[in-house]
């Protein structure tokens, strides 16, 4: 992704920019940013402008998801109520048997069981496929799909494989043996768009199509170590990879910015003019000579 210094030679900005980012409307904020970029540079005329904007939209959505998760985690930590603190202090000041003061209870001297101390989860650096490698299988991903590769004895036939793919769970292994994978997905998949096959009679390959195709999975099957999704390496972004709603919004913004650069009406202005023409055609008897319309 290009950085600002790679776009055009910096010039002093003459256009005030006072937009505020609203998490509930990220595309509205992006439209205002593109408006400033369109007036101050030729960035939108670059051949790679489309890919860079798409990548920025995806990165913004990922940051929003991470921010929401952190916010929910923070809100789930309930501070100790002041009344509870005061009550604890009063309880500690109650008269105690002198003998009990001299001999602390044995239970208080016992060492804390190390198993009771919850260790922070370790996030791993993803492999080249943006997943992780394990002893019995490996997995990788892009924004749309997850791929799982399971080595099996050479000469294994498809009829010897058992594979069950559900919306939130995967079971796969060899018949007559313990399952190699049996667990819940990080997120749901589209079962009708998933399939598996045997490659060279020595590798079971499972392809999963994600339900949410704007999210990186932290793990494939529940119980696996989590990867650091900030270190994934996404493939070159394409406008066609976006969902229809986001794609339409990005295309509209890019069209409007190009129109403004050439001094032509934006899509909204074109729509208003078309509506006005239609209204005038439907009302030929009305006099519009002194009418004033907002652009």
What does the model show?
The protein is of the alpha+beta class and 295 residues long. The protein contains 8 helices and 10 strands. It has helices spanning 4-7, 26-40, 49-75, 82-92, 98-102, 106-109, 244-261, 267-282, and strands at 123-124, 132-133, 138-141, 145-151, 161-165, 169-174, 181-184, 195-199, 203-209, 226-227. The strands form 3 sheets. Strands 2-3-4-9-8 form a 5-stranded antiparallel beta sheet, with no helix packed on it. Strand 5 and strand 6 (169-174) form a beta hairpin. Helix 2 packs parallel to helix 7 (244-261). The longest helix has 27 residues, at 49-75. The two termini are 36 Å apart.
Number of strand elements: 10
Class based on secondary structure composition and strand pairing: alpha+beta
Strand content is 5-15%
Cα-to-Cα separation, first versus last residue: 36 Å
Subcellular location: Cytoplasmic granule
Protein name: CS domain-containing protein
GO molecular function, one term: unfolded protein binding
Pfam families: CS (PF04969)
Keywords:
five-stranded antiparallel sheet, unfolded protein binding, elongated, CS_dom, three-stranded antiparallel sheet, single chain, 8 helices, cytoplasm, disordered N terminus, alpha+beta, 295 residues, NudC_fam
Task: Give the helix/strand layout.
Elements: H1 4-7, H2 26-40, H3 49-75, H4 82-92, H5 98-102, H6 106-109, E1 123-124, E2 132-133, E3 138-141, E4 145-151, E5 161-165, E6 169-174, E7 181-184, E8 195-199, E9 203-209, E10 226-227, H7 244-261, H8 267-282
Parallel strand pairs: 1-10
Antiparallel strand pairs: 2-3, 3-4, 4-9, 5-6, 6-7, 8-9
């Amino acid at each position: 992704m290009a950085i600002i210094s790679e776009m055009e030679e910096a010039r002093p900005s003459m256009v005030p920019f006072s937009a505020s980012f609203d998490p509930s409307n990220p595309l509205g904020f992006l439209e205002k940013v593109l408006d400033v970029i369109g007036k101050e540079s030729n960035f939108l005329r670059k051949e790679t402008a489309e890919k860079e904007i798409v990548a920025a939209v995806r990165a913004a959505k990922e940051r929003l998801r991470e921010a929401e998760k952190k916010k929910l985690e923070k809100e789930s930590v309930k501070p100790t109520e002041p009344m509870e603190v005061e009550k604890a202090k009063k309880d500690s000041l109650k008269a105690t048997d002198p003998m009990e003061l001299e001999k602390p209870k044995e239970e208080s001297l016992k060492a804390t069981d190390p198993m009771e101390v919850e260790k922070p989860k370790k996030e791993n650096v993803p492999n080249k496929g943006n997943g992780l490698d394990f002893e019995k299988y490996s997995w990788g991903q892009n924004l749309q799909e997850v791929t799982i590769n399971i080595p099996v004895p050479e000469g294994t036939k498809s009829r010897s494989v058992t594979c069950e793919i559900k919306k939130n769970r995967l079971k796969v292994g060899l018949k007559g043996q313990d399952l190699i994978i049996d667990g819940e997905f990080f997120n749901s998949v589209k079962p009708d768009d998933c399939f598996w096959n045997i490659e060279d009679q020595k590798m079971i390959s499972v392809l999963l199509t994600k339900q949410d195709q704007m999210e990186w999975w932290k793990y494939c099957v529940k119980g696996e170590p989590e990867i650091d999704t900030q270190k994934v390496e996404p493939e070159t972004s394409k406008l066609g990879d976006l969902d229809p709603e986001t794609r339409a919004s990005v295309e509209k913004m890019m069209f409007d910015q190009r129109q403004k650069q050439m001094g032509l009406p934006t899509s909204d202005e074109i729509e208003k003019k078309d509506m006005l023409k239609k209204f005038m055609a439907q009302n030929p008897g009305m006099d519009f000579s002194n009418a004033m319309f907002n652009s």
